[in-house]
Amino acid sequence: MSRGRDTKPHIGIFGRRNFGKSSFINTLVKQDIAIVSDQPGTTTDPVKKSIEIFGIGPAVMIDTAGIDDTGELGMKRIKKSVDVIRSIDLAILMIAQNTFGNYEAELIDKFSQYDVPYIIVHNKSDIEALKPDMLSKLNGYAKEDLIEFSSVDPINLETVIDRMRKTIPETAYQNPSLLGDLVNKGDIVLLITPIDSEAPDGRMILPQVMAIRDVLDNDCVNIVLKEDAVEDFLKKTNIKPALAVTDSQMFDLVDKMLPEDIPLTSFSILFARMRGPFEKYIEGAAKIEALHENERILILESCTHQVSCDDIGRFKIPGWIKKHTGKNIEFDVVASLNKLPRPITKYALVIQCGGCVITRKQLAGRLKPAIDAGIPVTNYGMAISYLHGIFDRAIAPFFNYD
Q1: What 3-state DSSP class applies to 109?
Q2: What 3-state class would DSSP assign to 322?
Q3: In contact, 118 and 108? CB cutoff 8 Å
Q4: What spatial distance separates the first Cα and last Cα of the chain, rounded to whole Å?
Q5: pLDDT digits (tens, 9 = 90+) for 3-24
């Protein structure tokens, strides 16, 4: 299931068929937005619902198919439901009728595998209340007290919402600053933003827009220029920016333009620090040097877009790597959060884009199989700066501030 382009926290609801997952969502948002039926298996594929939760803000609820589905098609539905786990920020395990078995235990194992916090809700308590022996059994699984609930008479809805607020990590809904610790109030930040064939008509790409806003949020001054205007601007104004940020594909050109005493990095590296495993990315960039003939690299894009000959992930990075190594390197490019074409162990290196359109949890889930398998990971900006011999300068701003 592709969930790119939505950076709000994602909350998944899991459980057996006809245990009231869809009814719970309707009760939570006080609207009939999820289809409810007494027929088991009404929800077939994971379905997203945008909601607002007081104390968390905008969020996305994911209503999943029953984990006890049957048949060949049912197995495919279950797989899609389980695949959701790697990219959510909070899981709600819905049980009912005092039923808890291997289905639920395996789900909890998956939550733990992907470091997903969870709460357990015993639904339909108006029909059958939780029995003491079941409560005792669940104490070994629940990290907090089990919540009794009824969508028919939701008298403790606020208790459920409060538990959700307390359990979901703050990092899921609090967006850290891209560059707040790199600059001081009143500083001038130079943003170098090429307009090429990948830029949407009449608009700027998302990382540039987010950087502009972050500069303003930190009470600094934006200077936004195309790459061909930078030298002339610096000569005419004698302004010395406190920080310069460029599109990664312009690293080589901008490095030659800017004096060494102006800190320089890229939009992609800013996002790498905010959302990715930054230290792993740094280590992974140097692995480019150790690539062997006919090895394969996986390039991960977070969004889907029209491909052009200027495409940085599909053409430029592969071309630069082949030129730098002098070796025949194979590449697979996977967009959004789509399935990989081959096992992760078939790759010598993974290169992830900045990840501006997905959540931190989605990006972490995307990279986890590679990291667990000991495969080096890095990101676009770091790989490009390494290939152009300016890696040390590109990451220096993150280690030289007070």
Answers
A1: helix
A2: helix
A3: yes
A4: 42
A5: 334 568 899 999 999 898 888 8
The residue behind tokens 């959540």 is 359
Asked if 298 and 342 count as a contact pair (C-beta separation under 8 A), the reply is no
- From CA 386, how far away is CA 298, in angstroms rounded? 17
Angle at CA 83, nearest 5°, toward 356 and 53? Answer: 60
pLDDT at 109 over 70: yes
Residue 155 CA to residue 309 CA, distance in Å, equals: 58
Contact 36, 26 (CB under 8 A): yes
Whole-number Cα distances in Å, 318 to 95, 311, 387:
49, 10, 11
307 vs 237, which has greater pLDDT?
237
Query: Which residue in 191, 248, 218, 230 sits closest to 394, CA to CA?
Result: 248
Domains and CATH numbers, the chain: 10-172 (3.40.50.300), 188-270 (3.40.50.11420), 281-387 (3.40.50.11410)
96: which DSSP letter?
E
Closest CA to 243 of 228, 254, 253, 232: 254
Count the Cβ atoms, other than its own, within 10 Å of residue 390.
18
The C-alpha angle 207, 208, 214, rounded to 5 degrees, equals: 85
User: pTM higher than 0.85, yes or no?
Assistant: no
For 320, list phi and psi in degrees, rounded to 5. Answer: -65, -40
